[in-house]
Amino acid sequence: MEKAPPTKRPRYDTALRAEALRLASESRSTLAAARALNIDAKRIYAWQKAAQPPVPTDPAEAAEVRALRAANKRLAQELDILKKAIAIFSHPPAL
Fold first, then answer.
1. Count H helices, E strands: the chain?
2. pLDDT for 20 beyond 60
3. Rounded Cα gap, residues 21 and 15, in angstroms
4. Which GO terms describe its biological process (predicted)?
């Protein structure tokens, strides 16, 4: 009984990684970007984590950085909601 030869992992160049990160950030859905590029979503999550700057070693600074990142994410979501609301309310009602 023979074993099948091991398959090689696909290699992704930096251009594809950058495109995947751009799609994931623009669409606000890493899963959608993974489906569009036919890449495993876990791989894109790992690329996103690697692209973030490291958290400082000082506990006080690290807590502040985490809080600022969370606030930034929340504000970005609020901005997206407001943009969608403007798009909806800028159209005159159809009679």
1. 4, 0
2. yes
3. 10
4. DNA transposition
